[in-house]
Design goal:
Number of domains: 1
Distance between the termini: 73 Å
Order of helices and strands: HEEEEEEEHEEEH
CATH topology: Immunoglobulin-like
Largest sheet: 6 strands, mixed
CATH architecture: Sandwich
Number of helices: 3
Number of strands: 10
Helix content: 10-25%
Strand content: over 45%
Structural class: alpha+beta
């Protein structure tokens, strides 16, 4: 029995030294605030099982967390975003949408006109959640 345990440990030890468990890599979601004029972005992200808390990001600050998709590919994180009088919420990580779009690093950037999601495959933004139009127009008048 001891030799079997040793063989098992030698065979699977590489998996213990990486971010991969049972062939499932960790995914990191990062949110960057690039709102102008030192505007603060407040975010509150959650999943069914985890509340990641409320975070206030100053301009050019970020917040990130890592996790593994569940076995059934139903992993879901959603976030509320707010700054000034604008707010919106959306699914920031949805396994069925994002497991191939951004398998290791899901990057989101909040700007004055919306929150942009970037594909890991081509590096371009491929998902945009817009702030309410009236706030965008008011903000542009302030420049």
């Amino acid at each position: 029995m001891g030799i079997q345990a040793l063989l098992f440990a030698l065979l699977f030890s590489p998996f213990l030294l990486t971010n991969t468990v049972n062939g499932i890599s960790k995914t990191t979601v990062s949110i960057f605030n690039i709102l102008p004029d030192e505007l603060k972005l407040t975010i509150h992200c959650k999943s069914k099982n985890d509340d990641l808390g409320i975070h206030e990001l100053r301009s050019n600050e970020s917040f990130a967390w890592s996790f593994r998709d569940n076995f059934f590919d139903t992993t879901l994180f959603f976030c509320g975003f707010s700054w000034r009088d604008a707010s919106l919420s959306f699914d920031i990580y949805k396994a069925t949408r994002d497991r191939f779009r951004c398998p290791l690093n899901c990057t989101w950037v909040a700007n004055y006109d919306g929150v942009y999601g970037y594909s890991e495959n081509d590096g371009g933004d491929d998902i945009i959640f817009r702030w309410p139009k009236n706030l965008h127009q008011i903000h542009m008048l302030n420049y």
